[in-house]
Each structure stands twice: as structure tokens, then as C-alpha cells.
Amino acid sequence: EQSALDLYDEWNDGEPNNQNDNEDCAVMTRTGKYSDVACDQVFPFLCVRSKVGLTWNSACNTYDTDYQSSAGLSSCYKIHTNPKNWTDAYGTCKAEGGYLAIVKTDAEKTFLIKLFADHPSSSLRGEFWKDALLIGFHDLFVSREYEYIDGPLVPLIKFSGAEPDNYTPGERCGTMYRDGLFDDIWCDRPNIFACEMPAVARTAKNVTPLRFRKQ
């Protein structure tokens, strides 16, 4: 029985060669031809999904209908209820064409509070802090010098009680409580999180390049 690779036999010269008897996966090079590689090697990758049944989210310019917009806001937002640590949450938002939510105005905070309320603690499954939402600020570069992933914090930001306190090593990443107050949280502990992407025909935030990596 023929496979798709048999029908499209466009291997690079000398490939596949199963070097060291350890090349069981395949990549496509820039020439459009294939090579076999070890499956534990790291490469960029391309995903594909069927367009059958997809609905276009015209307000947010995406097929992801979980992103929601609100009148007067320049962005769309999505709550992810599958917990991830801060770094993985950052990567998930980026993969969707967005970024961890950056809360700079009362209107943005109010809308996120509303979206958060749609996911009460009782509806969330798993062992994690269910009243905190990972968002896009941190002090990973300089301890206690908090900043957004696109620049300095704005005066609007209000922390809860005596926070941020960096209570134990690792509380270097940002979160928002259900009441809209901010806190620092352990970067390596999974939690639910909020992603943001520009809404269509509205002025987007200047988030390119994101400053997750120190410049």
C-alpha cells in the first residue's frame, strides 16, 4: 500500500538514510524536499486543520471564536482554562497570534474581570489557584522592577494588600485577581491565563517586539 510520501517522492540527495539507525521522523527543507531526522531534534513546524465547520470571528480577525471584544477596546481577549506556567502561557498566546493580556486601562480591567467571572472557581478542574489569572507583566529582569511584556507599568496598576512581596523565590510573574487587583506569583506554577490580540479596525497596542527577552 502506498503512502503519501511514496506518491510525493521528493527526498534530498542521499535521503532518507536513517543515520545512526535513529532517524524515524521527517522534515521538509527550504527547497521543498524531505530529509529523515531524529525525532528528538527541534525544528519549526506547521499545523493544518480542516476548514469544515470553522466559523470566522470577524471582530477579532481569527478563526478562534473564544476571543471576545468589547465596544471601545482596541483588543480581543480569551481566557484559557487549561492551566500552564507563565512561560508556557506566554508561548500559547504567541502561537495564537496574540500575547499575554496587558491591562493598562480601567476599561480593559473591567472587561477581563467580566470574562474571568464567566469561569467561576467551581467550574475549573485541577489543583491550582483558581482565583488568579496570569497576565503579561513580570520582574524577571530586575527583582521588584515590574514591567509589562511591552514596556513599563502604568500608574493605574493596583496591587493587592502588601503585594508584590516576592514572598518566596520564584514569585516573579504577574497575575490578576477576580477583583482586578494585581499580584506576583510563582512563574513555574500552572494557572489559567488571559491572551490578548488586536481587534479589527481598531488601534492596536505597540507590542512588537515583545520585551519578554531582555534587550
Automatic annotation (TrEMBL):
Residues of the C-type lectin domain: 8-48, 76-196
Q: Please give the residue ranges the record annotates as the region Disordered.
A: 1-22
Q: What is the residue range of the signal peptide feature? A: none
The protein depicted here goes by the name Immulectin 16
**What is the species listed in this Swiss-Prot or TrEMBL entry?**
Hepialus xiaojinensis
Alphabetized PANTHER family for the sequence: MANNOSE, PHOSPHOLIPASE, LECTIN RECEPTOR RELATED
Q: Which SMART domains match?
A: CLECT
